[in-house]
Amino acid sequence: MVDYSSKLLENAVEEMARFPGIGKRSALRMILYLLNQPEEQTIDLAKALVKLKTEIKFCRNCHNISDTDLCEICQNPKRQKEIVCVVEDIRDVMAIENTQQYKGLYHVLGGKISPIDGIGPQNLNINSLVEKVKEGEVEELIFALSSTMEGDTTNFYIYKQIEKYKVKASSIARGIAVGDELEFADEITLGRSIINRQPFEASLKN
What we know:
The chain contains 9 helices and 7 strands.
């Protein structure tokens, strides 16, 4: 048990240690670093976090995080609105955008189907995606979830929901190793996997 000598310090460390991948030692280093910085810098950080939490929006079209009701990608008239890339979260949008190889829109699910974690289809942004397909807005869906059991299950579930509609379903090429998350793939590999995407039906036979 660590003697922090200050309840304020202990509380700050406990809160920082809630972050994924941050243990109490790392949290302590971060808090001590902040204490050694000018007061204005720490206050600016606190204000930015509060502003982020209270003012951030989710795009009404794709569920990407945004400063406005419609994100910059969905507002861009140069994007191919008939092509939609299905991703798990905002980190995947960032990773794909960094490749500069994709010019369509996105649909952020907000997670993957994972019964063991209590996450079912009803907990994800799947219904709004199916509605887009029903309305004929989409010509191609690109499944770009990580190639894990949960990712493959989610892909298959969505595919069965849109199978009867006139929409092309494809998945990114398996240049990314099974189990890898998109955010950790290098830009060249990820870019090629999008360009060389294959019909989703073909992935069912593998």
